[in-house]
TrEMBL record:
PROSITE patterns in the record: ALDEHYDE_DEHYDR_CYS, ALDEHYDE_DEHYDR_GLU
GO biological process: aldehyde metabolic process
Protein name: Aldehyde dehydrogenase
Organism: Halalkalibacter nanhaiisediminis
Membrane spanning residue stretches: none
């Protein structure tokens, strides 16, 4: 990377223009308009990279982006205003405020699975926070990357927002620079690399990672509805979703019924798309081969068909999978769903607790006690009760992981908070000056003890 870009952005940031709230709102509107104008081209790029249909592209990429921008524009004036907070009696005469200060120059490194939305949604937060931004799109989705670069260069000056395209060496060069904030979405392994690089400058980070997110189907769940929603959440984007259910634990009393309903809903939701060649493809041959190898780790009871020329694997369900097999040692990130059965809920809770905290967890039950036991008793980033994936589609909920599944959160207010520093300011009176802090003695100590109660 040419370090002149970083200097150019830092110099522009210190001019102060990006701090103005009216300026930020104007830039958010410009971004939304630019995406709207290029909507057809962006959908075409997503089809070329991942074979996403227009409907799926809008549902998972463009729609959430529009919603996020609109929500932030509406609330930004209130969020950005300094907030007066209480001051203790020990500080009598003073006033306390919290200011949201932009970080400066932010780096956003985007993944390939939702290459538009996961590149631009963090930028929305960066703009709202008053920062300058460098965006590194994924090289694995080159058409979308090219479109993002064109959109940004035509809409914003390079000193404000810029796109740097390239492969691994480009990311390494960017991470060697001293940014003021880094926002990364991707795998756990690369997240560790990003964090290590950031530690050299003690640069704050948000890491949106992944993990093996479970779905748990209780015997009191509405089994057909649970199957439908799990099928949709799992096989959307060919399973290449960070919060997709990675595996299912279903109560043994309803397992057979559940698998039958999985089969029905897979056919209902995806058979036509597969026949028409409209089902999303696996991003690369390397990932395709990795997923095919997982099909050897148990019994394929639904699906298993694949087409190498198109990099397509049909939605597949597996049983008789063991935890020591490769499929259960890493995030699957594809259209392959292992199903396990259980007799006691504590068995499932033990399995989840013994492993790194997942990014998401999904509970299907009509029993409030079961719901509370799982939601309150298991560590995970976020999730749903009686649904999948939809918790990340609301700007009113923070989205982020825990432990190995990530750190920090964004969406809505949390995006603004992520891209700002909460600066504490105490404004002291000059009308009087209490002598207590200057003098030491027995009387002073008595007064201080009362003040600090």
């Amino acid at each position: 990377m040419d370090d002149r870009l970083l200097k150019k952005q830092r110099d522009y940031f210190f001019q102060g223009e990006t701090r103005d709230v009216a300026f930020r709102i104007k830039q958010l509107k410009k971004l939304k308009k630019a995406v709207e104008v290029r909507e057809t081209e962006l959908m075409d790029a997503l089809r070329m990279d991942l074979n996403k249909s227009k409907e799926e592209a809008f549902l998972t990429e463009l729609g959430p982006l529009y919603q996020e921008i609109g929500h932030i524009i509406k609330h930004l004036p209130k969020w950005a205003k300094e907030k007066k907070v209480e001051t203790p009696v020990s500080q009598i005469g003073s006033e306390s405020y919290i200011y949201h200060e932009p970080h400066g120059v932010a780096l956003v490194i985007a993944p390939w699975n939702y290459p538009l939305q996961l590149a631009l949604a963090p930028v929305v937060g960066s703009i709202a926070g008053g920062n300058c931004t460098v965006i590194k799109p994924s090289e694995l989705t080159p058409h979308t990357s090219k479109m993002i670069a064109a959109l940004v260069s035509e809409t914003f000056s390079e000193e404000y927002i810029a796109v740097v395209e390239g492969a691994v060496e480009t990311s390494q060069a960017l991470l060697a620079e001293r940014f003021d904030y880094i926002f990364f979405t991707g795998s756990v392994a690369i997240g560790k690399v990003v964090m290590e690089a950031a530690s050299k400058h003690l640069t704050p980070v948000t890491l949106e990672l992944g993990g093996k997110s479970p779905a748990i189907v209780d015997k009191k769940a509405k089994v057909d509805l649970a199957a439908r929603r799990i099928v949709w959440g799992k096989f959307l984007n060919a399973g290449q979703t960070c919060v997709a259910p990675d595996y299912v634990y279903v109560h043994e009393d309803v397992k057979d019924q559940f698998i039958k309903r999985l089969d029905y809903h897979i056919q209902d939701l995806f058979r036509s798309k597969l026949e028409k060649g409209e089902y999303p493809r696996i991003v690369s041959e390397r990932h395709f081969d990795r997923l095919l190898s997982f099909l050897q780790d148990g019994d394929v009871v639904i699906g298993g068909q694949h087409e190498r020329d198109m990099l397509v694997i049909s939605p597949s369900v597996m049983t008789n999978v063991e935890w020591d097999q490769p499929i259960m040692q890493e995030e699957i990130f594809g259209p392959v769903l292992p199903v396990f059965s259980y007799s006691k809920l504590d068995e499932v809770m033990t399995v989840v607790r013994e492993r790194p905290s997942p990014l998401a967890l999904y509970v299907f039950t009509e029993d409030k006690k079961v719901e509370e036991k799982l939601v309150q008793g298991l560590p995970f980033g976020g999730g749903c009760v009686n649904d999948t994936v939809m918790h990340l589609a609301t700007p009113h909920l923070p989205f982020g992981g825990k432990g190995e599944s990530g750190m920090g959160a964004y969406h809505g207010y949390e995006s603004f908070a992520a891209f700002t520093h909460r600066k504490s300011i105490l404004k002291q009176s000059t009308s009087f000056d209490l002598p207590l802090r200057y003098k030491q003695g027995r009387l002073t100590m008595k007064l201080l003890r009362k003040l600090f109660q």
